[in-house]
Structures are given as structure tokens and as C-alpha cells.
Automatic annotation (TrEMBL):
Zinc finger region(s), CR-type: 139-222
Superkingdom of origin: Eukaryota
Organism: Diatrype stigma
Pfam families, per the entry: DnaJ, DnaJ_C, DnaJ_CXXCXGXG
Keyword field contains Repeat: yes
UniProt GO BP: protein folding
Keyword check for Aminoacyl-tRNA synthetase: no
Protein name stated in the entry: Type I HSP40 co-chaperone
Keywords: Chaperone, Metal-binding, Repeat, Zinc, Zinc-finger
J domain ranges (all copies): 6-71
Residue span, CR-type domain: 139-222
InterPro entries documented for this protein: DnaJ_C (IPR002939), DnaJ_domain (IPR001623), DnaJ_domain_CS (IPR018253), DNJA1/2-like (IPR044713), HSP40/DnaJ_pept-bd (IPR008971), HSP_DnaJ_Cys-rich_dom (IPR001305), HSP_DnaJ_Cys-rich_dom_sf (IPR036410), J_dom_sf (IPR036869)
GO molecular function: Hsp70 protein binding; unfolded protein binding; zinc ion binding
Signal sequence, start to end: none
Length: 330
């Protein structure tokens, strides 16, 4: 016998309802009370959130068992409590992407409806690419190698022989199990790694594991990318390679991002699009005039003439247009 029936009542089903009956009830209620279909109706929005929260709990076998035995109080402080999935996210997960109740999802069912979020994306690989001031002045294409994870081609990302991979029944494929501990009048809920599947959510017999990836579904791959260092590029500029990062089954391939960082230079410093050169000259040159020779970044020698009688003081700047950096629009 269940402790309370509030969640079942919200969906309009009995405590003995099957998973299919729960799905049908949620689908009917979510479509009826969705905010996009009931704009400006706070009661409908509240009802939409109520049935969404009820379905989130009752559709999870572990949460439903806890709710049936202890009521909503038993869910507090854990994944089934106030920190659960948002109602809109649950709706998108249930209907989006060609789910169980339709071909193309419900992205355009309501005016201004939610876009299809699509599968999650693998992590972005970040690298710093240090370049010399000479390379920035002239421009360069760098070949950079990196290691990434790609889907195993031997097992096509299954991890084992076709049909040998099964969903872990101990954690319902979540990789984590919810445990409960009685502490006086209080009930403590906590999550731990499922011991049956070691947190993987799937079980593959050792003899059936893919020999290439060991059941991990991915293998390490070496990838060489050509990074274009444009003339005049500035430190902090990011060069992005979409879809060239890590891969994993069921997710979009991640990106690779290289951030340009200028190395210190022994002769020049850069100020926006100008190059600054510090020249140490003798007193006689400052007073009587003379010539300063500067080796430029492209190996040319530039001459700076100091006229006799020109007032030269420490820290004085003179501008030579030919020394400037190529301009960039990044």
C-alpha cells in the first residue's frame, strides 16, 4: 500500500498504473496544460509543472519505490526532490527528437514552441598555441597534433558483440544507485556508484567485450590540424575547429579551440598594431646626431636618422611607419 497518492492524482491514474499508463497520462496532461498553448494562464502553468514533477518521479522506478513507501518526504534532499529536472526540459526530452510518440517531435506544435535541443555535445578540447612575433608579422600555418577519443570502428561504439550489451537492471542504466538509511526519525538518501556495472550503466561479459576498445566504446586517436596564424593576429584570438574534438556514442562530436599567445621578443614589444623598439644611444649621438640601425622582423635593416641639434631625451619616441604591424580585423 502506498503512503500517499498526490503524484498519482496529479496524473489522474491509480497507484497501480503501469509505465505505459503513466506515459499516456503525462502526454495528455502536458499537451493540454503546456504554457505555449495557454499563454497568460498561470493556473495552467502551475498544473503543467505539477504533472511534470509527478511524472519525473513516477517514471523512475527507484524514485517511485521510495515515494510509494515514504511519500514525498522521502524524496527530499535527493535527485527526486526540488532539484529535479525542469518541467520544460522534461517536456523536451519526452517529445523532442522523434521520441516514442511521434516522428519529428513537437518543436513546432505551439506558436513559439521550444526548439529541439538535440543530443548533448562532447567536451571542447582547449590548447594554447604560442607563436613568435616574427610569425605574427609574416603569417604562418602551424601543424599541431593532438590526442582525442573517437568512436571505436571495430564495434561501432557498442562496446561488445552485437546483442551482447545489456542495460544494467541494478541501476536501470543510470550508473548510480539511490540508497536509503534510517537515522532515528529521519531518512537519509544518498547515491553511490552501482556495484553491478561499476557506474557504466551497461553490463558486458568479459568474453564479449570488444578487443579493440576493451568495452569502452572509444579509442584514442592522433589528429593533426592546420592552424592558420593570420598576419597581425592578436594574443587571445581563438581558432576553432568544429566537430574535430572528442567523440562518444549518442553525443555530438566536440570542438577543438586553439588560443593564440604571443611569445616575448628580445628586441620588440607590441602595442596594438605598433612595434616598439628600445634603442640605447651614446651621448655624442644624442647631441651631434647619427644613425641607428634596427633589424626588422622580416630580416630587413631599417635606419633611423637623428639630426644634429635634435633634442633627444630618455624615453622619447619617434615613429617609423615601416615598423608597424600588419593590421588585422579579428
Amino acid at each position: 500500500m502506498v503512503k500517499e497518492t498526490t503524484f498519482y492524482d496529479a496524473l489522474g491514474v491509480s497507484p497501480s498504473a503501469t509505465d505505459q499508463e503513466l506515459k499516456k497520462a503525462y502526454k495528455t496532461g502536458a499537451l493540454k496544460f503546456h504554457p505555449d498553448k495557454n499563454r497568460g494562464n498561470p493556473d495552467a502553468e502551475a498544473k503543467f509543472k505539477e504533472i511534470s514533477h509527478a511524472y519525473e518521479v513516477l517514471s523512475d522506478s527507484q524514485k517511485r519505490a521510495i515515494y510509494d513507501q515514504y511519500g514525498e518526504a522521502g524524496l527530499e534532499g535527493g535527485a527526486g526532490g526540488g532539484g529535479g529536472m525542469a518541467a520544460e526540459d522534461l517536456f523536451a526530452q519526452f517529445f523532442g527528437g522523434g521520441g516514442a510518440f511521434g516522428g519529428g517531435g513537437l518543436g513546432g506544435m505551439f506558436a513559439g514552441g521550444m526548439p529541439n535541443r538535440g543530443p548533448p555535445k562532447a567536451r571542447t578540447i582547449h590548447h594554447t598555441h604560442k607563436v613568435s612575433l616574427e610569425d605574427i608579422y609574416k603569417g604562418k600555418v602551424s601543424k599541431l597534433a593532438l590526442q582525442r577519443s573517437i568512436i571505436c570502428t571495430k564495434c561501432e561504439g557498442r562496446g561488445g558483440k552485437d546483442g551482447a550489451v545489456r542495460r544494467c537492471s541494478g541501476c536501470d542504466g543510470q550508473g548510480m544507485k539511490t540508497m536509503m538509511r534510517q537515522m532515528g526519525p529521519m531518512i537519509q538518501r544518498f547515491q553511490t556508484v552501482c556495484p553491478d556495472c561499476n557506474g557504466e550503466g551497461e553490463i558486458i561479459k568479459e568474453k564479449d567485450r570488444c578487443k579493440a576498445c576493451g568495452g569502452k566504446k572509444t579509442v584514442v586517436d592522433r589528429k593533426v590540424l592546420h592552424v592558420h596564424v593570420d598576419r597581425g593576429v592578436r594574443s587571445g584570438t581563438k581558432v576553432e575547429f568544429r566537430g574535430e574534438g572528442d567523440q562518444a556514442p549518442g553525443v555530438q562530436a566536440g570542438d577543438v579551440v586553439f588560443e593564440i599567445e604571443q611569445k616575448p621578443h628580445p628586441r620588440f614589444t607590441r602595442k596594438e598594431d605598433d612595434l616598439l623598439y628600445r634603442a640605447d644611444i651614446e651621448l655624442v649621438t644624442a647631441l651631434a646626431g647619427g644613425t641607428i640601425y634596427i633589424e626588422h622582423l622580416d630580416d630587413r635593416w631599417l635606419t633611423v636618422e637623428i639630426q644634429p641639434g635634435e633634442a633627444i631625451a630618455p624615453g622619447k619616441y619617434t615613429h617609423q611607419p615601416l615598423i608597424s604591424q600588419p593590421r588585422t580585423h579579428c
